Amino acid sequence: MSSQSPQSTDVDSTAINEHWANISRHVVNSYVEANNAVLAAMGISPATSGAEDDEPDAPVTEESVSVPSVACSDETWTTDRSVSAVSDLEVGDFVQFSKPIAETDVSAFAGVSGDTNRLHLDEDYADATQFQGRIVHGTLVAGTISAALARFPGNTIYLSQDLEFRAPVAVGDTVTADCRIVEALGNDQYRLETTVSTDEGETVIDGEAVVVITESPDAE
């Protein structure tokens, strides 16, 4: 996925980001609709995200602790979270997930998604654009938010996700997704602030999600 038009190399960056966001929002909404269908079968009614509420983030009160990743992992991935039990979840709790976006990630995502835009795969072509090099698919970078959510205690299911793409990510960059609870909505549902940033501290994705978090079937 890309915001770049093959006929132009000086497209306004604001227009690029808006185009990025519009296309990616369509993809995310498709995922959300599928999750909502599952929740309906479970008898759970999705809550609205409440994005219009402009509430300040609550401070994190628990000391951050490193935790093991989920079953499928990689030595280059790192995880951090502030809570270890579903029953302890509250406003201010967070989870973070970091990974480098490798060449193999970009190639695999292009094959799985069908997004073979030359901006992601053709170095010579990308060098001639305003990005001056290949960039990672926006929805691949956004996928690290889902990876972070999977590392909350219990089972986490998406209900909604709003995204704003602020800057591109280069192949080889390491990114960190940060998901923080900003509101408990009831019925095991939570509204979260979701961001992705680079190792240099630049925020490349900003957004908000609503999720359901329940106990794992194997919880003791």
UniProtKB/TrEMBL annotation:
It comes from the Archaea. One of its GO terms (molecular function) is hydro-lyase activity. It comes from Halosolutus amylolyticus. PANTHER family: HYDROXYACYL-THIOESTER DEHYDRATASE TYPE 2, MITOCHONDRIAL, HYDROXYACYL-THIOESTER DEHYDRATASE TYPE 2, MITOCHONDRIAL-RELATED. InterPro entries: HotDog_dom_sf, MaoC-like_dom, UPF0336/Enoyl-CoA_hydratase. This is MaoC family dehydratase. Residues 98-191 form the MaoC-like domain.
